[in-house]
Structure formats: structure tokens, C-alpha cells
Amino acid sequence: MTTACQALSFPLLAPAPDPVSLGRPISLQNALYFIAVVLSLTILLLDTSALDVLKRWKLACVGGDGWSQVAQDLGDEYLIGVGKADITGPVVEINLMGYADPKQVGTGLRQRLYSRAFIVGSIDHPEDRFVYLVLDIQSGDTAIRYGILNALRELGLSYDVYDHHNVAVTGTHSHSGPGGWLNYLLPQVTSKGFDRQGYRAIVDGAVLSIRRAHESLQPGYLGVGTTKVFGANINRSLFAYLANPAEERARYTSSAEDDGSVEKDLTLLKFQRASDRKNIGVLTWFPVHGTSMLGNNTLIAGDNKGVAAYLFEKSTRGDENAAEGFVAGFSQASVGDTSPNVLGAWCEDGSDQMCSFENSTCSDGKSQYCHARGPFFRAKDNGQSSCFEIGKRQFEPARALYDQLELSLVPVRGSWVKSFHTFHNMSGFSFLLPNGSLASTCPAALGYSFAAGTSDGPGAFDFTQHDGNEETTSPIWRVVRALLKSPTTEQRECHSPKPVLLDVGEMYTPYQWTPNVVDIQVFRVGQLFMIISPGEATTMAGRRWKEAVHSTSSALFQPSSPAPIVVLGGPANSYTHYITTEEEYGIQRYEGASTLYGPHTLAAYINVTLSLLPFLSAGASAPPRHEGGLFPPDHSNRSLSFITGVVRDGATLTKGFGAVLTDVKPAYKRGQKVSAVFVGANPRNNLRLEGTFAAVERMAGTGEWERVRDDGDWGLVYSWRRVSEVLATSEVTIEWETEEWTEVGVYRLRYYGDAKGLGEGLTEFEGVSGYFRLDK
């Protein structure tokens, strides 16, 4: 018996009746088919949208026997779970990670940072699973990953399933988070060493997000789709990209707007639980640098991907198809040569000229005045308006694709949930290239153009991209290099044509400066393959890596598996700087100079990846465990730190902690900024993880106050300022950028703080502004 649910599903899920049968008596199935077509056309002519009607039909059919027809189109069932947790480290007095500027020190919080965890497992073999973490930080890291794995082992037997092979720690590559948590010495230099407080915030929050995902595991479906994102990224090293073969570049040119110089595709993986067909999360991949917030920004934020995740999660509140606690992860992809500053690089020297194409310099021959411009570069807000806009430009097509996937998606099929991970020594690795010639990698080294920076964040002194070397820079840098570690002749020849500035892979005092042992990891669920890259792959490097995996997996696993879909995420697990093509490496702009292991770095990554792909086959045994094998060092317990702690906090002579120094005005219009200043205390005393420093409260109809904004909202800004070092006094400013859609009413601001006494513990306090009215 054909049910109404099945009949209505025919136009979506079944072929039309055979035209030959139209001359015969109409069967019940064919009659129901044509009725469903007529109903569908009627729906399209009504005010109610077809999408809404079909959603209601889908929900109505969940309990009926017609659902089996729909379920067949959702793909295979997997164990799925998502989780989110706060990882916001110290928001003041710590150097920000990304621009390597020791003067860029945190002064407050624009938006909290989060870890978002996505777990996929096999229904039949639950031990086959993986965890994909998206952290609002600059990159994955060796010490962070060790900390996460060690903490998981302490949670009990049910967490023993998580190990090196199936845990990926990726970063959104935000350049506006606190630094000091990385494992190796080089990135610790500008942050005055290792900051344990920030390290623990990231590790503990990442573990909490995994716990939440683990505890929510349940049967569900995965669907994948792709859409175009325009206006959110450009290639900042186009001169290097054009060194790739013209015929290769031509394969990716589809229009003037999509010229192939960067990837415009956003891939979205939807997580849908089986119990009620509600969506619990999405995981996306799209390449754009986390450099919308500029090098002069001192407010902690997740940059444009943090904005995109915030907007997506906010958009699902009240959505009947989204579960409570919906998690949206916006992961990086082939990010290496991308920039969110889509108006290009311009000279800020009064000339109003674009920077030179080859080496990103201005009329003085230097790079310092060359700055890339975001969509709202004229706003004097350190990149915050452009940051929100680039985040929105990722969110909007992602949300449109998500809505489209309600009706049409590529279901993930195949019971295979597999993963592998290996530690590989890139210092002197010899292997055969596809053409049969022998190639080798080198101990890590950085070239002269590394010190030039990029148009997103130019370097200092006289370094330039592309043509930086010993002859074009001051002789003092040869002296500096000699004092640190002069590269051997063999090292110079291995890295050629890169002129070596810092021989970081051979520097071990007081401990290792940069990794030589790298993480290589791939996940597989059904036909979806995820390359977990430890470095920033450029656009063409990422394409070659993905195409190699696609080609090899097709040969290995088809026809038993649908055509593979391959994505690349990173930087993950450790931070190995950049991965360029050999042609781009030869140009020696910033990305090539930062490709650590020589001209064959990309080829080596591909070689090792392909050699381990057989571990992802359906019947493959588990890859070998890491016990007794090669491990990179964990410096978290031996790193140097020159970061001073908080000694004490002092209030004023007449006002206590939390007292209002400058109050709000009685009334504001929507779109205006509301602010108040309080007697403050150092926020490093208590990071208030899973909590907030600031809040906006609205008076409800009952006369009670309810919280409507907190640190997780983009429009609420917390700023801290030291008033007196001697008296240890400080001030906190809370500013609310009211939105045009904000509900009118009566509001107030609230400040949460913790004061430290000399030789005493912490004292918790609060401050409350006067109330104010917000009108249209």
C-alpha cells in the first residue's frame, strides 16, 4: 500500500512513470505521482514557500511507514556528535599570536574563542571513529595536541578509543588570539616565552568540547555539498602563483570573478541525527587568512571565521530543523596564499599607488608602507568592520547551501570510518618523485623573505619579498645569523634557491626552535576524505595534494565506494609554516621562504600520504600504534617564560571594585554605541571560561532583568586599561554597539571581575551601570 508520505516523495526520490504506460489504465502509483506533481506546482504558486511546506511534510512523515523511502536517500548511518567549549585565554598583557609583533599586546575582548568538536564513528565498529577539532586559534600545535590526548586518557575507558590516529587539532588561523602556547621556541620569542594559563585554557576547553561531542554520540546521517563564495578572498602572492604551469592554472579558471588564483569553493558537511531528523551541526572548509583584524588590533577575537561560526549558530536558534546546541565549524582549507583583504595591497605613504607586484614594496623600496585593504578599510577600527563583513560573506552562502541541503544533498555512503596518523621526519627524507627522479627534503630553514612579512602584515627593517637575500639587506643580518647558527654548505644547497636566513631546524638551544618531525594524517568517512595539513598549503599546493589523494583513492577503493570527495583542513596538529609548489618556491616570496623543508616539501607530504592510504580501506587493519616510535618533543614543561604574573589589584581611594566611573546616558537610538567605565581588576585573575566579563541586561515585562548579550556576542566589547603600575589600579570599559534590529526597551550593562589582594586570594565582584532606554 502506497502511503501519502511515499506518494509525495515520488517527485523528489523516484523517476517519472514510463511514458509508454500513459496509454494504459492509470495505476494507483502513477495517479499518486501526478497528484503529487500538481500539489508541488500549487505550492510554488502560493505565498507559503515550497521549502517550508516540504520541511513540514518531512517532519510529518518521520513517524510514518513512508519514511523508509526518504531514509534511503540520506546515505548510511554513522555515530555522530558535536560539542563546543570556551578556550579564551588571557585577554590582556599577553602578545597576540600571528603577526609576530611584540608590541601587539592584548587590551580586551571582542569575542570569546571556542573549540568546536565533530566526532564521526562507525555504527558496526564504534572503535572506528575520528575527532575533528576546529579551534579559534592560529594553528594546531604539538604541545596542545599532547595535552589534549593526555587529558583524554585520564577520562576513563570509554575515551581510550581516542589516540594519535583519530584526533585532529586544527586552527582557524586567527591572528587575534593570545599567544604563548606554542611548543617550539621561534613562535615563543615575541610572546616572552610560554604562557601556561593560555595553554591550559586551550587544552581544557578542547577536551571539554570533545567530552560534549562524545556524550552526545548517536546514530545520524552526513550530507555534503559545495557552493561558491565570492568577495571573501584573493591571492596575496599572485606573482608566485603565476609561476605555476599555464595549462595547470587554466584548469581552474572559470570566469573573471573565479580566475582560479584562489579557491572559491566552500564545502559543507551536515550532521543530522536519526532520531528526529534534526541537524546538530555543520563543518565547512574554505580558504581565507585570519588577518581581517589588523596588526594594530589588541582585542581578542576569532577573526572572520569566528564571525562566520557565530552568525551561523545564531541563525539556527528557533529553527525547527536545528537541534539545541547546534555547532558550526568553519575550518581553514588551502589558506597559504589567500587574504581576506580583498581590495588588494596599497602603499600607505600618501602616493595612493598599489604596491609593487613582484615584491610588495612602495616608492622607498621597502615593505613597511605596503598594507592590504579589507572591504571597510577606511573605518578606523583596526579591521573590525572588515572582519565582520568577511565573516558574513562566508556565512551567507554557507547558510544558503545548508538550506538547500534540506532538499538535495550528496549523502555520505559507505560504512568505512577510518583514519591514520604518522610522525614523519622531514630532515633529510629521500624519496622518488612521480617522474622517477630522486628527491630529498632538508632540515627546517627560513629564507630572507620570511622576515619581509606579507601585505597582510609587513615585516620590519630592509627585508623584501622575492628578491630578499644577503646582497639586498644589511650585512648585520649575516652577523645575526652567524651568532645563531650559520647554515652549512649542504644545508644551503638543499634549500636552494632559498637564501637561508634562519637555520631553525638545526637550532636546539635552549630547546628546538622549529619542528623537523611533522604530523601527516588523513580521515575517511564513506567517500569523504579529509587531509589534515600541518602547514599552510597554498592554493595550487592544496589542489595537487587533494588531486593525488583523489586519484589514488579512486584506484584503491572504487567501484566499491562512490567517487571520492577530498577536502584539506589545517594548519593542524603542529605548525610547520607554509607548503608551496616547487614553482612557487622558486619565486621566494614570503610563502616560499617559509616553506621549511626545501623545494620538495609538498612532494614529500604527498608521497607519505599516498603510502599510507591503504590503511583507509574497508578491510584494513588498524594502522600501527605509536608506542616506541618517532615522537616530536613536548616542551610544555620545559619552555622558558618571562611573562610576569598579576601581583595585586588596587581600587581607588573613594570607589571600590566594580564602581561606576563614567555612567551611561539616559537614552540612545538603535545603532549608537553605549558605554560605561568601571573600577576594574586584571582579567588574568580569572579567565571566566564558559562565563563572561561583560553583559547587557534588558528589563522584562515582569520588572526582572534578563541577560541578552555577553562576551560571545560580537557587538559587546570589553576593554581593560592599567591606570597606575604603582597603585595597581585599572579601569574597565564596556561598550555595546547596538544593532539596528535590537528590541527597544530598558537596558543596563553589567561587569564581572575578580580582584587579587597582596598575598591573598581572589575576591569576586560585580559592577552595574545605570539603566537606559533604547529607542528606534
Automatic annotation (TrEMBL):
Pfam families found in the cross-reference section: Ceramidase_alk, Ceramidse_alk_C
Molecular functions (GO terms): metal ion binding; N-acylsphingosine amidohydrolase activity
Keywords: Hydrolase, Lipid metabolism, Metal-binding, Sphingolipid metabolism, Zinc
Entry's Gene Ontology cellular component terms: extracellular region; membrane
Reactions this protein catalyses: an N-acylsphing-4-enine + H2O = sphing-4-enine + a fatty acid
Ranges for domain Neutral/alkaline non-lysosomal ceramidase N-terminal: 78-607
InterPro entries attached to this UniProt entry: Ceramidase_alk, NCDase_C_sf, NEUT/ALK_ceramidase_C, NEUT/ALK_ceramidase_N
Organism domain of life: Eukaryota
One GO term (biological process): long-chain fatty acid biosynthetic process
Domain Neutral/alkaline non-lysosomal ceramidase C-terminal: 611-773
Free-text cofactor note: Binds 1 zinc ion per subunit.
Chain positions recorded as Zn(2+) binding sites: 173, 289, 536, 578
E.C. numbers: 3.5.1.23
Gene3D superfamilies: Neutral/alkaline non-lysosomal ceramidase, C-terminal domain
Cofactor(s) of this protein: Zn(2+)
Annotated catalytic residues: 339 (nucleophile)
Top enzyme class: hydrolase
Stated family: Belongs to the neutral ceramidase family.
Name this polypeptide is given: Neutral ceramidase
Organism lineage: Eukaryota, Fungi, Dikarya, Ascomycota, Pezizomycotina
